[in-house]
């Protein structure tokens, strides 16, 4: 699994904004990132998180804290 996919999956499962270190910890514990297959997990994750924010897949919620972007439901309510 790619680092951005792993981060999105962790954030979906947790349902709340998380610091990147917590995202990394959970992704490693749940087997979404393999430290033996991915060299420099930290660098890859941070790069993926930054790309995710630029592309709109993720949003920043503070220094080092990331969340899924808010979406608008068809009824007009924010999620």
Throw out a few tags for this protein.
mainly alpha, three-stranded antiparallel beta sheet, 3 helices, 79 residues, disordered C terminus, 47% helix
What is the element string, with H for helices and E for strands?
HEHHEE
The average pLDDT value, as a whole number, equals 90
* Helix-residue proportion: 40-55%
Total count of helical runs of at least 4 residues: 3
> What structural category do the secondary elements indicate?
mainly alpha
Distance between the termini: 26 Å
Q: Give the amount of beta strand, in percent.
A: 5-15%
Count of all domains: 1
The strand order across the widest sheet is 1-3-2
Globular, elongated, flat, extended or rod-shaped: what is the shape?
globular
- Low-confidence residue ranges: 72-79
Largest sheet: 3 strands, antiparallel
Gyration radius (Cα, Å) is 13 Å
What can you tell me about this protein's structure?
- It is a single chain.
- With 79 residues, this protein is mainly alpha-helical.
- Helices cover 47% and strands 11% of the residues.
- A three-stranded antiparallel beta sheet has the order 1-3-2.
- α1 (3-14) packs across α2 (20-29).
- The radius of gyration is 13 Å and the shape is globular.
- It starts with a helix and ends in a 12-residue tail after the last strand.
Give me a quick take on this structure.
This protein is mainly alpha-helical and 79 residues long. The chain contains 3 helices and 3 strands.
